[in-house]
Design brief:
This protein has 325 residues and is an alpha+beta fold. The protein is built from 11 helices and 12 strands.
């Protein structure tokens, strides 16, 4: 079905681009084999005319979404015709200097281990054909560090497409303190990676507020929903600040914990003070922000929260939820 639709859209686009005069619906219906096979010639029954009109309008909207500029022209007899002028659908020449080409190559290299590897490679091939400098190797060495963004969650790709298309989504989400997932309805804004974990920032329709979701806690399939956004999408900087705060990167208080000697080096790197307690334990003072409880749980029995009390309670609740499965 997907292949048949793609072929139909391609044939419609070629007809609209190849004509020098506007073509009516009847002419397009008789010119495209898929329409003839499905609905017969343009003088068919009224029922088939209605079905064709609905399909044609959907196909026309799909082509416009893909970027094709389709003009609607009415002749002297009042008949409506359609065409896509070549000058309106021709992209300007792409010119890239060596630094811009290297930046694009590096960005594509980042995604080589992710599900976007094929799309990244295809995009570079198109840029090469459009004038990418021949003396620039997009996949050449850019230093001793190899940039990689690991993506293991199945929810990444559908959420990425939903962010791009501004489509609301629904998915099951299991909070760290909950034994079962809950259904969430979200207007997705952007995907961000923090501490090796992917997060989705968006507007939670059920709660009427912005929320951040860790992709590893999304269960089942991500399903697109009809309709448009109801909340305004913040700029990129604001979204990143939201994810950073939710992931515990922004702290406005301090917490005091006990940490087993020789363990928890990421916590030690963030500590503002460290004091040896003896018996294999140290006492650390660390910045305390949203998400710290989820991070501390990852260290298991090597961490004991001393204060504040609410952080200790949150960590205990998360550990109990994990123990219950």
């Amino acid at each position: 079905m997907a292949i048949a639709k793609a072929e139909r859209l391609m044939n419609l686009a070629l007809c609209l681009l190849g004509t020098r005069r506007p073509l009516s619906k009847r002419e397009l219906r008789d010119s495209i084999e898929a329409y003839v096979e499905a609905f017969g010639p343009g003088n068919g029954a009224t029922g088939s005319d209605d079905s064709f009109n609905r399909m044609f309008e959907r196909d026309k909207d799909d082509l416009r979404e893909l970027g094709l500029v389709i003009e609607t022209v009415e002749n002297l007899d009042g008949e409506v015709g359609y065409l896509a002028r070549r000058d309106s659908n021709r992209l300007p020449a792409i010119t890239l200097d060596a630094e811009e080409a290297a930046a694009l190559g590096l960005a594509a290299k980042v995604w080589q281990q992710a599900r976007l590897a094929g799309a990244a490679s295809g995009a570079l091939q198109k840029l090469r054909a459009a004038g990418l400098p021949e003396d620039v190797d997009p996949y050449g060495s850019h230093g001793a560090l190899e940039p990689r963004i690991p993506v293991h969650e199945a929810a990444f790709e559908p959420l990425m497409l939903a962010c791009r298309d501004r489509r609301p989504v629904a998915f099951g989400y299991r909070k760290a303190t909950a034994a079962r997932p809950e259904q969430r309805h979200v207007e997705p804004w952007a995907l961000e990676c923090w501490r090796g974990h992917w997060y989705l920032a968006g507007w939670d329709r059920d709660r009427g507020a912005e929320r951040v979701f860790r992709l590893s806690r999304i269960t089942g399939k991500v399903r697109s929903r009809s309709g448009r956004y109801t909340a305004e999408v913040p700029d990129v900087v604001t979204v990143r600040e939201t994810v950073a705060g939710w992931a515990g990167e922004i702290a406005d208080r301090s917490a005091r914990i006990r940490l087993r000697t020789g363990a928890g080096y990421p916590l030690r790197a963030k500590a503002t003070s460290v004091r040896e307690l003896g018996d294999g334990w140290d006492e650390l003072e660390i910045p305390y922000g949203h998400g710290l409880d989820a991070w501390l749980v990852e260290f298991g029995p090597d961490v004991v929260v001393l204060e504040p009390a609410e952080l200790r309670a949150d960590v205990v609740d998360r550990l109990r939820a994990v123990a219950k499965g």
